[in-house]
Design brief:
The protein has ten helices and ten strands. It has two domains: 168 residues, 3-Layer(aba) Sandwich (Rossmann fold); 104 residues, Nitrogenase molybdenum iron protein domain (Rossmann fold). The relative contact order is 0.13. The structure holds zinc ion. The site of zinc ion (ZN) has 4 residues, from loops. Zinc ion binds next to loops.
Length: 295
């Protein structure tokens, strides 16, 4: 009889507190979904991961759901981007500190050479955030090289937090390194010999990717605003001369200029989401599209 009562109670408790279902795993919260992909690749069954900003969302208008705040209060490791642009990271990590919740922080920007932005701004029509000149690019996770360095630090944090899993984490990390090597050679093969190295985007999220693979990013938005008619006219002439056939657009940012240029020059408009969890898949599709349209 006693055993039955305990089982029933346990079910009731699990229903009330879903986090108990992940008991025994290391709870990790990450800032952007692509980081979650990496934590899962390294930690496998030993980790449970929650991402703050997900596919299709913009980090600049982001505010977490109550469920995400619950997950955050369980987190033993937090993987942040670590760029000043990501104000929400600082805000939530401060809140955890106020609650005396100790969390191990992995900072992606630590030890990374931040590239300087070309023309850059963040905005989605609701609220705009304007960059000042000479600011650095916050979109670190589109670089396989930076992801690799971060993966090493994530593995270290997991081992420190869960020493019993060291062998699993080391195996997960080597597997992930191999996947990155494959991704890198595939990207180089696809982009090798590409005739037109310039690509056009509504929002400049691909600078680190461009630097790594010898490409050149050109953004339609300018200083936080849609391009002016004069800027658009100039962009249309430059783009016509470059003879590229596609514009890449990101959800959450204005597509007005992109659609106008595409209509004028009869270009294809392709959606690309740098916030998607499967970032190696995103980079592969991007490279293949460049091959197809810029080849
Ligand atoms: Zn951005």
């Amino acid at each position: 009889m006693g055993g039955v009562r305990v089982t029933v109670l346990l079910f009731a408790v699990c229903g009330l507190f879903p986090s108990l279902l992940t008991a025994g795993t290391v709870a990790v919260t990450v800032s952007v979904a692509p980081q979650a992909h990496m934590v899962k690749a390294i930690g496998g069954d030993r980790v449970s991961v929650d991402a703050m900003v997900r596919s299709g969302q913009s980090a600049h208008t982001f505010s977490p759901s109550p469920r995400q705040m619950m997950a955050l209060s369980d987190a033993r490791i937090y993987v942040k981007v670590g760029h000043p642009e990501y104000v929400f990271e600082r805000r939530y990590l401060e809140r955890l500190a106020e609650l005396d919740h100790e969390v191990r922080v992995v900072n992606m920007a630590h030890g990374t050479d931040l590239r300087t932005l070309e023309e850059h701004a963040h905005g989605d029509g609701r609220g705009r955030h304007q960059h000042e000149g000479g600011e650095t690019d916050p979109h670190l996770w589109v670089s396989p090289r930076i992801m690799r360095a971060t993966a090493d630090r994530i593995a270290e944090a997991l081992i420190a937090e869960d020493p019993a899993g060291e062998a699993d984490y080391r195996a997960g990390l080597s597997r992930f390194h191999r996947q990155l090597d494959e991704l890198d050679s595939e990207l180089r093969e696809t982009l090798d010999g590409l005739q037109r190295r310039m690509f056009l985007v509504n929002h400049p999220a691909w600078g680190y990717f461009a630097d790594e693979y010898g490409l050149q990013q050109r953004a339609i938005e300018s200083e936080g605003k849609d391009a002016s008619p004069a800027q658009l006219a100039a962009l249309i002439e430059r783009t016509r001369a470059d003879d590229v056939k596609a514009i890449f657009v990101q959800t959450g940012f204005s597509k007005r200029g992109a659609l106008l240029i595409a209509r004028e020059l009869d270009m294809s408009v392709i959606s690309l989401d740098p916030m998607a969890e499967d970032w190696p898949g995103t980079l592969r599709s991007f490279a293949r599209a460049l091959r197809e349209f810029n080849g």
